[in-house]
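Support request from a user on the community tier.

User writes: "When I paste my structure tokens into the form, the page sometimes reloads and wipes my input. The last time it worked, I copied everything first. Here is what I submitted, just in case something in the input itself triggers the reload:"
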């Protein structure tokens, strides 16, 4: 089994991420840890938690622990397998876990979470990501259309995000190069247009 990513939406989970400024703005938070430490999921025993966990094939990691938490705390959980042909007994969602944030899948995720149509926005949700570059960019880019702003200064500047706009997508990164190639105008310009359009929709 190879874990692709896991998405957790919670209101207050101690010891997970430190947000600049340290303020809890009251939004649901979506966390995307790639490999949470043993026992970390126990910290998420809170109401209205959304969990989607993705793997390539085989068993879904932490499933037993998650199932216990779901029953105990009335959580909502979605597993997804990106190679369903290699998991013929799997009956749940399929595709990469970051695909939950794309187009009609995001509309569906909104309904599952219980947000109104168009309600998956930075005023209601904060995103945390930990995973491979493909998972990070695959989450960041489609969410630009909803006005979500990455917590990375050079990307913000390249996309023309006003300095007073709050970050709403946070992720762990282990090198200094942005996950988006901001040196390539053919990459940046279309994304800048999407980011500006997304921010405009919020006003």
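"...and here is what came back when it finally went through:"
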């Amino acid at each position: 089994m190879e874990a692709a990513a896991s998405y957790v939406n919670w209101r207050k989970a101690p010891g997970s991420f430190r947000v600049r400024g340290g303020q809890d703005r009251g939004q649901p938070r979506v966390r995307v840890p790639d490999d949470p430490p043993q026992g970390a999921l126990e910290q998420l025993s809170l109401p209205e938690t959304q969990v989607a966990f993705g793997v390539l094939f085989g068993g879904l990691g932490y499933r037993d622990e998650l199932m216990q938490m779901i029953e105990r705390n009335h959580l909502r959980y979605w597993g997804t397998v990106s190679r369903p042909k290699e998991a013929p007994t799997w009956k749940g969602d399929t595709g990469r876990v970051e695909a939950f944030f794309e187009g009609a899948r995001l509309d569906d995720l909104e309904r599952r979470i219980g947000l109104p149509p168009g309600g998956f926005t930075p005023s209601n949700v904060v995103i945390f990501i930990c995973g491979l570059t493909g998972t990070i960019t695959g989450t960041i880019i489609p969410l630009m259309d909803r006005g979500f702003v990455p917590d990375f200064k050079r990307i913000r500047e390249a996309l023309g995000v006003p300095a007073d706009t709050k970050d709403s997508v946070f992720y762990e990164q282990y090198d200094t190069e942005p996950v988006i190639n901001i040196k390539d105008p053919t990459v940046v310009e279309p994304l800048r247009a999407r980011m500006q359009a997304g921010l405009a929709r919020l006003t």
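Agent notes: The reload is a front-end session timeout and is unrelated to the input. The chain has one domain: 3-201. Residues 3-201 form a domain with the Rossmann fold fold (CATH 3.40.50.80). Escalated to web team.
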